[in-house]
Structure prediction request, 171 residues.
Amino acid sequence: MAFDLGNLLNQYLGGANANQQQAHDDFDRVAQNAPQDALARGLSGALRSDQTPPFPQMVSQMFGQSNPNQRAGMLNQLLATLGPAVLAQLGNGGLGNLFGGRTPTQVTPEQASQVSPEQVRELAEKAEQQNPSIVDRMGDFYAQNPTLVKAIGGAALAIALGHMAQNMRRQ
Prediction:
C-alpha cells in the first residue's frame, strides 16, 4: 500500500490534537515524503503561529538540540538577515566577544558551539524585529534539517502538519 501524504495531513486540518508521539511519528513520515518547499511552508506557519511558543524561543530550543554544524547553519541564517548596524552592535559585546570583537559574517561550527541558546534567542528576536522574513528563511533551513524540528514538541509539530495540509488544500 502506497503512502498517502494528503490523507495523513488531512488529519491535522483544523488543529486536530494528535497525541505527541503520533505527531512525532507523522512528522517523520511527512518529512521523508513531502516536497521540501511544502515542508518549509508548514514549518514557517508553525514558527509564526500564536498556538506555539514565540519564534525566538523555538529557535533557541532547536539550537540547544543541534550539533555544531547545524548550530553554525542556524546562526548564519540569523546573521544574514541583520543589517550592518545590528551586526556592528554584536561586535561590541555579547556574541561579538566570541568573534574577537569583529562583526561576524560566517560562523564556524567551533564558534557556534560557544554560543548559548539564550544568546540565540536574543539574536532571533533582533533578527525577527529587523526582518520578519527570517521566519521563512528558518522554515527553509529546518526543512533541510527536519530532525531538529522535533525539539519543539508534538503540539508544535501537529500545528506544522496542519499548516502543510492547509497549503496543500489551496493548491
